[in-house]
Amino acid sequence: MQSEIDAVSVVWFHDRQLRERDWPVMSHVAADAGRLGVWEWVAANHRYNGLLWREEDRARRLDVPPSEIAAGKRLIDRYNQKRNDAVESIDEALLASLRHVVCVPDARLSSETAGAMIDRLSILALKIHHMRAQTQRVDADDAHVRACTAKLDRLLAQRQDLMSCLDLLLTEARAGRAYFKLYRQFKMYNDPALNPYLNGQVQGDGRAAP
Fold this sequence. Notes:
Elements: H1 7-18, H2 38-58, H3 66-97, E1 108-109, H4 114-135, H5 142-174, E2 178-179
Helix pairs in contact: 1-2, 1-4, 2-3, 2-4, 3-4, 4-5
C-alpha cells in the first residue's frame, strides 16, 4: 500500500479488512513503512466503526436482560469515542504532511475534513458489505433481494461520489487551493467533568445546575 492517502487506496483497505474472518476483533495492519503514520489511524477508525456496527446490532436484542444491553451501550460509547479520536488523528497526520504547503489567497476552506470523509467511507464500506450479503441470501424472497440490490447500487454510487470529493480535497490541499482544519469533537457525554449526571450537577427536578 502506498504511504500517501487517496480514495482508491482507502476503499481498497476498508474492503480488504472486511474480508478478514476475525476482523474487527483483531487488527490486520502490517507494521511496514506503507502502513505507519496516517494508515494506523485509518485502520483504527475502521476497526472501531466495525466494532460499533456489531455492538449496535447486539443492542437491539430482545432475548437478553437489560443489564446486558446497558453494558453494550457503554461499549458503544467507548468505541464511538475511539472512532472520533482516530478521525482527529487522521486529520492531524494529514495536516502535518501539508504543513509546508502555502495556500493561495483565495483558497477555499472545506468545512468537512479529510478525516471525516475517510470515516464516512469506512461506514459506507460496512453498509456495502452487509447489504451485499443480503443480496446473496438464499433464504430470502425475491422482493427482499431486489430491494437490497437497489440499495446496494445506491450505496456504491454514494461511495463513488464521496471518493471523488475526498480526492478533490486532497489534490487541492496539496496544491494550496483548498484547506481544512483540525476540529475537536469534545464529546461531553463521555467526560465525567462535563456530563451533569456523572458529576452531581443534576438537581432534583432533573435539570443541570447553572
